[in-house]
Amino acid sequence: MQTKLARIAWITGGGSGIGQALTLKLAREGWKVAVSGRRPEALQETARLAAGNVYAYPLDVSDLEAMRQTAARIESELGPLDLVVLNAGMGQFVKLDNLRAETFAAHMRVNYLGVVNGIDAVLAAFRRRHAGHIVIVASVAGYRGVPRAAAYGPTKAALINLAESLRFDLEREGIRISVCNPGFVETPMTAGNRVPMPFLMNLQAATEALYRGIMKQKFEIIFPRRFVLLLKLFRCLPYALYFPVIRKFTGR
Questions:
Q1: Catalytic residue among 152, 211, 239, 242
Q2: 112 labelled catalytic
Q3: Rounded Cα gap, residues 231 and 160, in angstroms
Q4: I want to staple 147 with a disulfide (CB 3.0 to 4.6 A). Which of 48, 96, 100, 252 is the partner?
Q5: Mean pLDDT in the chain?
Q6: pLDDT band at 194 (very low <50, low <70, confident <90, very high)
Q7: Whole-angstrom Cα distance, residue 202 to residue 152?
């Protein structure tokens, strides 16, 4: 009897948080997972925790050539990719006292162009096979402007627009694209937050929600659901209502 081949995934930002948790989940489900990020030791720890099926490929997602070479290397060493989760990102609060163009540029290089680089790196192979699934991890911070997210939020808004725009052409090629818009999740990135985090979600529950959304091939994957639906309602508010509501909600 012919053995069923393992599905193969590539996850960026897999050294911690949701990226690491999803890597471990996929490995438990029998996937081979290539995991990338800038910190080799964190990737090795992810591989150690998985105890098999996880392979470290260190890189900086803002380096386009490194992304292209790594995608080719993964397919050569592990096999054709079925799933790519573009999750690597950074987040820094911006106040007027520390507003610097360099901070905005860094967020754009990592959060937005890092995703574009990942799509570029796998697109040709996916088109040849008329198959593949690209998952972009954005954020509810991309829905509307919120206090102190002036560097982070616009990159996530750009990712949502990117996924919406590419969906039309990718579907014709047999390629799936999803955008994940999580709310607050217990990760190292949110651990230092000093702002209200309503409906803060456990990392394991968030990972299960992301995994289910990927398996169902949903276009938009959201969690925690009640919080995200509330923010979707806020998107419909005129500015005259939106700004006072957010000021009251955030204390800003």
A1: 152
A2: no
A3: 15
A4: 252
A5: 93
A6: low
A7: 22
